[in-house]
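pasting for ref
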Amino acid sequence: MTTCIYCGNAFDPDKPTTTICRSCWFGGRYFEEQRPSLIAALRQIPGIASASFDHTGGGCWGLGVRLQDGRFLFAVVALKDSETGEWYGDPSLPEPGEPWTVGVYADDDGGFSSGEPLTYDLPVTDDQLIERVRVEAARIETKENV
């Protein structure tokens, strides 16, 4: 038995080098610890229902931000094609400091099932990602105050 470095619960690892329990791993805790200021900044924006690192299956991860009006922003790593120079999104998380691709979807079903985004931005930095979320969340307040 091993103790998880995040939650302190005992677990039986598949490998002797594993230090994170399945619950913390699939709950995104490892990625939250890598980017504490990013996730904290997102969660403090008015109009945000939740912000989390989401495992979407098949080893794929993204940063999911759910707005209180049901819209969903999903961010993944932005990569640049070495031949064409064009940017594209890949269903994984960037290393800290690397750029993001962010899509705005009507709801989280669209984001997780490769639905068409309402808008799409790439590449963006952590600060630009936070600002993009802030702009989308502000649209909720504008709609409600009209």
